[in-house]
Design goal:
transcription; mainly alpha; elongated; Tetracycline Repressor, domain 2; Homeodomain-like_sf
Length: 169
């Protein structure tokens, strides 16, 4: 709540007056944080470029936006995942939906790449999408907790290697 009151300039009473309960406040905060990341990431991903280049732009996004992500609390999916698992079980389905959407987006890029003969036809796109998400989330977490951007960059380097050597045709 302190972060929300600081960011909005509103009192706790004003904030709670606009929501039914604390769960509604938490969900609104999650949606806001997801939206902020998407607004920065989606233009990079939705460019009309070859699939491999689009995938590589995702790792560039995280390298170039490390400071923004870190200064804004880290990855909202990772943070909400922990909260949903430990304290806010109602949030779990929203986090799961975000992960499904992200994985579907990555998988769609790879499937389009298969059609355009850029991506190996034998790869399991959804499995690779989940692997990429896992490496991104782990890299963000390690870099943030240790205040070491090189840990994120190492994870992004590994994703780039996977894209070039296992996914690309």
């Amino acid at each position: 709540m302190a972060d929300i009151t600081d960011a909005t300039g509103l009192t706790k009473g004003s904030i709670y007056g606009n929501f039914e309960n604390k769960d509604e406040v938490a969900l609104a905060a999650y949606r806001h944080n997801i939206s902020a990341i998407r607004k920065r990431l989606f233009p990079v991903v939705n460019e009309t470029k070859p699939a491999i280049e689009r995938l590589l732009h995702i790792t560039s996004f995280y390298r170039n936006n490390w400071r923004y992500v870190s200064e804004n609390g880290g990855c909202p999916i990772l943070n909400a995942s922990i909260e949903a698992d430990d304290n806010l079980p109602f949030l779990k389905r929203y986090v799961q939906a975000s992960i499904r959407d992200w994985a579907a987006m990555l998988s769609d890029i790879m499937e389009t790449g298969k059609i355009n003969h850029e991506v190996r036809r034998d790869i399991q796109s959804l499995e690779y999408a989940h692997l990429i998400i896992t490496l991104i989330e782990g890299g963000v977490m390690m870099a943030k907790i240790n205040n070491e951007p090189r840990l994120l960059n190492g994870a992004m380097d590994r994703i780039d290697m996977i894209i070039r050597s296992e996914i690309a045709k």
